[in-house]
Amino acid sequence: MYKFQIRKNQTKTIRIDKSGKYVVELVGEGAEVEVVGGFRAKDKEQIEIEIEVVHKAKNTNANTHIRGVVGDEVQARVVGTIKVLPGAQKTNSFLTEKVLILSDKARAEVVPNLEIEADDVKCSHAATVGKIDEEQLFYLMSRGLRQADARDIIVEGFLAPVL
């Protein structure tokens, strides 16, 4: 397990690049964190990422963005949780989990969770699992790119925000 504590008025960026459990605690008023992670997996890899962002103090902010690309026979699971404890009023927290699937045998599961115990907060989440948009692929190929090159460009563009 990887554990991080963000103290009063501290701002931090945390990068996630491998499987594991990550716990990020915002323990001081005014603490801010950005958690970003990206992965690309192939063959028969198994990816398991669990992220828990815990707001323990008031006026804290967190943005968590995880993106992954899976191919071949990869099994991936991403679980993200935002917890806001009772004293953590005026919290802002956002969680996104997105996985792009490149083969019929690859599997991905994304699970966003919100556990809110305070009443004056702004928290939300988004989660998607999908394949390459065929219209994007067609467009790039109509501009002279080979299919493999077009797929590579789409994958790079998908991962760019978190790398």
Automatic annotation (TrEMBL):
Database matches in InterPro entries: Fe-S_cluster_assembly_SufBD, SUF_FeS_clus_asmbl_SufBD_core, SUF_FeS_clus_asmbl_SufBD_sf
Organism, scientific name: Candidatus Chisholmbacteria bacterium RIFCSPHIGHO2_01_FULL_48_12
Protein name (record): SUF system FeS cluster assembly SufBD core domain-containing protein
Any one Gene Ontology BP term: iron-sulfur cluster assembly
Residue stretches making up the SUF system FeS cluster assembly SufBD core domain: 23-158
A Pfam family annotated for this UniProt entry: SUFBD_core
